[in-house]
Every structure is written in C-alpha cells, then in structure tokens.
Amino acid sequence: MDKKTVGIIATVLSALACGCAAIISCAWGVIGVTGTPINITSGGDQYVDTMSPTVGYVLLCLSVLFVAVPVVVGFVTLRKKRAPIVDNEPIPPAS
User: Fold this and answer.
1) pLDDT per residue rounded down to tens, the chain (95 residues)
2) Taking Cα atoms as reference points, which of 59, 67, 53, 52 lies closest to residue 29?
C-alpha cells in the first residue's frame, strides 16, 4: 500500500472512532452541566439522580480532545514531506 493510502485510512478510522466518542461525550457533558435528571431503572426500582457538573465539564473537554485527534492524525499522515536537499557538487579535497 502507498503511504498516502495508509494515511487516508488512518484518518478515516480515527475520525469515525473519535467522532462517535466525541458526540456521546458532548451529549453526556451537556446533560451533566445543565443538571438534567437521569432516570435509572434497576431491578424494577426507578431512581432519579443528577450528574455532577464537574464530570460534565470534564466530558465536554474530552469531546474537544476527541475532535482534535483526527485533525492531528490527518495533518501528520497526509502532509507533504520536504524533498531532501541533493548536492551534486563534488566535495572539495581536504587541505
């Protein structure tokens, strides 16, 4: 495989994985920050609880990091490499 093809595949896979994680993290972060009650059903009993706003802020920060990962992967794998400097001049003899 060509290096560019591997870079494109890595970018797409990281975008899918991190994109899904970012959406879920952002949704739960908003729920935590706003203090929306969460219904928990366990063994036939139903509880209503809220998430700590601190956890919500942490999840929102994580969602920003999850969005940044595919951008960095794409930049690193798909950027053009510098052409090596080739000097065709002979090396002068040592004096």
Assistant:
1) 787 788 888 888 888 998 899 999 999 999 999 998 888 887 778 888 888 999 999 999 999 999 898 888 888 887 777 777 777 777 778 87
2) 59
